[in-house]
Structure formats: structure tokens, C-alpha cells
Specification:
disordered N terminus, 463 residues, 16 helices, 4 strands
Length: 463
Amino acid sequence: MEPKDTHARSRRAGHLAVLHAGLLIAFLTWRYGGMESFAVTVAQWLVLPAPFLTAFAWRQAGPELRRKFLWIAVPLLLLSALVVAGFFNASMRFVNLWGERSLVPTPHAEAWPSNPYPAVTAPDYGLNLGLVLVGLNLMLTRPSRRWLRGLIAGVALNTAILAVVGTFFKLSNAKAILGITPSPNPSFFATFIYHNHWGAIALLGVGAAAGIALYHNRRRLEAFFLSPAPFWVLCTALVLLAIPLSSGRSSTLAALVLSGGLALCLLASAGKDRGRWAAGLGLAAVLGLAVVGFLARDTIRNEYRETSGALSKLSSGGIGEGRLILYGDTLRLIGQRPWFGWGWGSFQYVHPRVAVPRPYRQTYQYEQYALDAHSDWLQFPAEVGLIGTGLGLTALAGVLRWAGRRGWWHSPSREILLGVGALSLLACVDFPTACPAVVVSAIALLAAAAELARVADHDPDHS
């Protein structure tokens, strides 16, 4: 039997892990998603305790949990070794060209992992690795179920507040973030510089809020409207309605897919009341579309014009929106270095090597290049290669394996998994993982859901 003092220390570590993750999520979501220098600097300091908490939790964990965690830790360590090796094999160097510093290729060991700009990409990888550890600690430290559900509820409530704030400023035609800070991107929403980064957070928040709502609906002993479930349904609706208002087309489509998945989950658990719930969902969908059509009519009209124009260009032999050309560029990068890739964070530095012109976007520039591939599923193999991508997917599979066979069927784990799935759809045509707030929110919610699912797999009837 586990000694009481050891059990108490383990629980305290779990509570620290929850507070650590919650602090980072709250800070990064309200500080422009972490997409500016001050937020990055603070986040780099805030993640420093994560590896120490991981080491402590490893010592306290039993043999079974250690074996399960190795399925995550080993591929993650191998991926880190691949990335770090590239930092010692620089593929580019600075030269002065007509009075300006520019990166140009330099001789290096091309058969081995490399990186074009380690001085910038190494700190970025350190931050992302720290954010991942912050999330994984929610599994290894074994927080209580109440604390994990509290974290999930906190994320859901935080996202709902962001949705309300973003809607208020959007409808008031604000030209700056929160009406104060000028945004470098006109397509901002709430505190996020880029609307699809907000969309990514919103998808995760919808999964969290719906999961908590269905959890309370399953556990309630009183009438539905006397339970906490309606409040969390309201939070879910607020976030869902704010996604199309942000003008993010891809996140809106992902939200529609997520809504369908959540509706199926509700109907699957409705039992004899399935017909009544189906009618309620249909009515809610009609009301939701009416509200969105009223509040976001100008946004929808503009997005429709832009999409129609891109499709028209594509059908007449043009390049459409430009993403297809960018995807072709990225595939060429993958083809040139398929195994180890070009190095972590390398896309913006190596893309000019393969970039082809995008005429409809050109103004006075002879060449154009992009900071991101607008598809994380293409950019990741371009940067860390097929080997690194395989290791990353293996670590992700280890997180899913943590829960066991039946645990993922329970709320809120099931709904959070759907939210992360919707995020992965968004990542097919956008770059949500470039946003630190999205990274820490996604891994923290997935890890919390995995730990709740693991416990539910052993004791499905216990709350």
C-alpha cells in the first residue's frame, strides 16, 4: 500500500501541474496568443519548472504508469535528439549584401539533421517542448479528477469570456485588439492577432465546454435545468457562434464538423429521450444559424466574395487562393530532404529556395515567400522530416494509449478528443500550432482528458 506522505506529495504535485497549466493557458490566451516577444519571454520563464515536475512525478509513479509514459517519452526524446542535432549543423550563414544582412546556404553535412538559423529556432523549440511537458505533467502527476475537471471547466469558461469580448469589439468595428493595441494583421479577433488562431482555441474550448456539459448531464440527480449542464451548454453556444463572426473560413468549417460530432455524442447518450433531444438540437441549429446570419452578415458576405473569387480564378486556370502553390512548394521541400527535413522552424528561411511566383498577390516584389506553409501537416514533415513526423505521431499515439480501451467513451474525455480532432482538420489548411496558446491548450486538454479516461477505464461508474 502506498504510504500516506508519498500519496500526499503526489497529489500536491498533481495540483501544481494543474495550476501550472492553467496559468500558462490564461496568460497566453490573453496576451495575443503568445505571438509577440514579451509573451514569448515570459512563457519561456514560466515553462522552466515543467521538467523538474516531470522528474519528480516519474520518481513517484508506479511501474505500470512508467511503462505507459515511456510510450510517450521515448519518441519525444528521440525527436528532441533529432532536432537538437540539427542546431549543431547550421545550413545557412549571414552575409552582407548591398548593406543588408541576408541568410545564404553554407557547406554542412547534408546527410544529417541540420538547421538554417539555430540562434532563433533553438529557443522556439525549447518553448514548445516546455509547453508539451506542462501538458504531459497532467498525466504523470495524477491530479485528482476534481482538479482535472476544474482545469477543463476553467479553459471552457476562459474561452467563452474571450468569445464574448471578441464579439463585442467585432460588432463595434474596433480597429485594434481590445480597442487599444494595433494589430499587425487586420484579421484579428478577441485577443488573437490571427483569426484562425482564435478559431483553434475556440474549437478546443467548445470541446471542453461540451464535455463538461455532458458530464454534468450524465451525473445529474435533479432536473436538467436545475443542474450545471445548461450553463455549460450556453458557454458552448457562445463560443460556437463567435467562430464564424471572426471571419475564419477554415475554422468555421471545422466548427461545423465538430458540432456534428458533438450532436452524435449527445444523441448516443440520450437513450429513450433521443427523439426529444434530436428535435431540440434541430431547433438550436436553426436559431444558431439565424443569429450568425444576423450578427455576421457582413463578414459572411465578404468571405463569400473572397472565396468565390478564388474559385473563379482556379476554374479559369489560375492559382485560386495561392495555398495550392504554397503546398506545392512545401512538397518540393519535403522531396529534397525527406528523412530529416530542413530543421525545426526552418520553413520561412528555406522556402525562398523553392518558391514560385504568386502573380495575383505580387505588387512591387520580384519574389514572395511565406512565414508558414498554411498546413501544419505539410510543414512538420518539411521541417523535421518523415522520421521526425513518425516520432511525433508515435508520441501522440502514446497519449491516446494512456487511457485504455473504454475510457475515451466517457465525458468530458470524448468531447475533448473531438475538439482536438477538429483542430487537426484545421491544421490541414492552416498553421494553428505556430501559436503557443494553441499548443499548450491542446496538449493540456488532451492530457487531462487522457488521465480522466484512464481512471474511468478502471472505474467507469465513479465520478
